[in-house]
Amino acid sequence: TSASAGDSTGIFSKVDREYADALDIIGVHSYEAGYPSLDKFDEGISQYANPPEILQEKDKWQTEYCVGDRVETGKNFEMNTAQKEFKILSADIGWGGNNVWYHWAGYYSYYIPLADRVTEVSHAPKDGEIQFVTMTLGYGVGVEYYKNKTYDMLQMIFKNVPAGSVVKRVTLSDNCPEIVNECKHLTDVVAFENGNSSIVALTNDSEEDLSFEYSNLKGTTAKCYAIVNGISSIADIGTKKVVDGKVKVVIPKDSI
Question: What stretch of H or E contains 22?
Answer without folding.
Answer: helix 17-22
